[in-house]
UniProtKB/TrEMBL annotation:
The keyword Zinc applies. Its EC number is 3.4.11.2. It is an enzyme of class 3 (hydrolase). Gene3D superfamilies: 2.60.40.1840, 3.30.2010.30, Neutral Protease Domain 2, Peptidase M1, alanyl aminopeptidase, C-terminal domain, tricorn interacting facor f3 domain. This is Aminopeptidase N. It catalyses: Release of an N-terminal amino acid, Xaa-|-Yaa- from a peptide, amide or arylamide. Xaa is preferably Ala, but may be most amino acids including Pro (slow action). When a terminal hydrophobic residue is followed by a prolyl residue, the two may be released as an intact Xaa-Pro dipeptide. Residues 54-193 form the Aminopeptidase N-like N-terminal domain.
Amino acid sequence: MRDAEPHPVRLADYRPPAWLVDTVHLDISLHPTATRVISRLALRRNPKGDATAPVLLDGDGLTLVRLAVDGTPLAGGAYEASPQALILRHPPSDRFTLEVETLVDPTANTQLMGLYRSRDNYCTQCEPEGFRRITYFPDRSDVLAVYTVRVEASRAEAPVLLSNGNLERSGPIPDTDRHYAIWHDPWPKPSYLFALVGGNLSKVPDHFVTASGRPVDLGIYVEPGKEARATYAMDALKRSMRWDEKVFGREYDLDVFNIVAVSDFNMGAMENKGLNIFNDKYVLASPETATDTDYAGIESVIAHEYFHNWSGNRVTCRDWFQLCLKEGLTVFRDQEFSSDERSRPVKRISDVRTLKAAQFTEDAGPLSHPVRPESYHEINNFYTATVYEKGAEVVRMLKTLLGDEDFRAGMDLYYARHDGDAATIEDFLAAFAEASGRDLSQFALWYSQAGTPRVSAQGQFDPAARTYRLDIRQETPPTPAQPEKKPVVLPLAIGLIGPDGQDLPLTLDDGRNLPRHVIEVTQAEQSFVFTGIDARPVLSLNRGFSAPINLSTNLADADLVFLAAHDRDPFNRFDALQGLAFRILKAGAASGTLPDAAPLIEAARLLLADSTLDPAFKAQALAIPGENEIAREIGSNVDPDAVFTARRALKRQLATALGTELEEAYAALAAPPPYSPGAAAAGRRALRNLALDYLTSGGAPEAIARAKAQFMAADNMTDRFAALAVLVQHDTPERAEALDDFYRRFVTDPLVIDKWLSLQAQIPEAGTLERVKDLTLLPVFSMANPNRVRALIGAFATANPTQFHRPDGAGHDFLVDVVLGLDAKNPQVAARMLSAFKTFRQLEPLRRASAERALRRVAATPGLSADVTDIATRSLS
Ligand code: ARG
Ligand code: ZN
């Protein structure tokens, strides 16, 4: 465990590396507790670096065995070595070979960074700073080298040996029980893209031929027995490869592309060159074990990691401040892929829901930071919704501003110019500025300025002048270390809808034209006057959520009902309904009684009845905002119990008012077997299960019985899980029976048990904290496995606001105990769990004080990791 560094790393302090590495030869002999790593580095002084700097290699917990320079062993006084660094103050020349032998213990590696074991397999995770836990190296993303890797292991223990690139040779090692494989990756890469796998794994093979005719061997490696569960992931991989050729002109560039699924993984997956390593949650699926949401998640993560081969690997990041350069862009690319493969509007709605739930909340609290931060204490804490999801929104805005053609030209120029480079956000923007001829200097603020802009739009129809005037103001609230904000560029897609429900032609009074029906706001206050308007139109602004902002308008409830029924932009139809729900829920939570919900009910009824609409879209539009979303809209002095009560009351009102329609939907949407994970069938299930949820919300015995019947009869996990999720909301014998049944069915399937843990952690009842504590004692739970921890503890802390924020503080105390216990073993996951406090300042005073006490208890604990110290310190600042 590392202690918190006293000084942050700063973007402004970036210096080019003093030494470069041209080639790396690794010889890795796998052993459970003493893996031997011999590394031969061809080092060369960087002509663009400090000409007098010593050779400084990073390490983390390494044991040095032997050191040689140009083949000659180095004597003790010739270098300085510690577990954290290896320094040669007097290199023999400006170009030499350094050979380093180290020992590492993969079994003791509970951080899951570097070389570790998952079940009995060996695997690696090197991004961002894990390679230094395998061998001494200039472990920074701007040192690119060509790797050749020889790996050997016991044949019985690790029949499969994989690394990056193409396989050169493999075979037995005579007179031993060991064997070896040599892998060579011709593409220079930074150390964070190195990967190695050894274990007893089954290969699911397939084949792909790229557009220009290169044959590629595809393999997905899974635990023996799980092969059938990898077929969907393989299908998603081939579709991703084709899509990147078609949409971005990017082809695959090696003879082999392998994916390995492991059970212990800190994040979702990792794009190591030619050897992606995945959390098995994002590979394994079968109709009986995975929900439609799981299938969609697999499709998008498989695509995401594959797309990194260009956006991340061929063009990588100069330093970790540029993380959004690869992550924001790659999230944008995987979102576009899923939109093309499924329904674009539904994908957009669900992405915006995620953005608001994860990023807007982050941006509104003490952990707010720019898409490109300017300093950090622990880079692992910056794999955030802001870097990923807001980073993707910024790329999307660029496309909206530039239009499809110039956007693609900018992408092509970026790749052409920086292929093989470690690039920056400035490089990225310069390519688009050049390709489009536009000045993007103000746009660049989206990368440096934190916070979600608040935008107000006031529309005024003038019948005499036949004009519609739109006054826009923008303001970005202060965030940590950024008290003053500048106006940003807002591309706002707009429609003015006439009384007949049709969009009016848009003509501005000053002759400015409106390419693609987008107004560009660049100032703090700006007005737009549309001419030739004959009757009062209804404003539809920020269509498709074209800018990631908090928008308020002077639209009346009746206007929102109109938009919900008539807007040709599906996102804003959805948003109009959500807007109506928010108005009711906020007032209800504040006063204890719900105001009249008639306008919302009316709009929902029309939408439900509209047979031209996709069921998946209806399911999104009719799902009322969650408790966290409501809390975010309220913004301050939030009482989670009041939010919960208001939400439950509204849900019941809607269920009562729309009972007949919901019954009809439930009956009509039953899908005939067999199960198919496709978007159309998934959409029907989503709407049917939403209907089930509404119809059961009052807790009537017949309704509970129906949910139980669906649970028992389901032939797929989507329907079984949806029924269970409904049942756990009600304290009935059926709940206990169903939970029991589910456990017995799936006790040997950890990914399914995660669903069971997670649902119980979300029960909004006083007994839940005790239940969660009891669940941690079960053999199916383990604090050492990140998926288990996220499923149980993460769900409790982030998806059960009434119980996590219990007024007696017991929920807060529990989380702190978990975090402190976990920190010594896996600081990354511990820090993630602790970040559940990121919204604590929006709570009412009693709960806010309890959360603050809990955070102070963490901060006051000696010997914490840098990860947890950083989150605790920033949360309290
Ligand atoms: N680059 C990976 C991705 O595709 C994330 C890896 C981050 N890992 C970590 N331990 N912080 O998103
Ligand atoms: Zn990524």
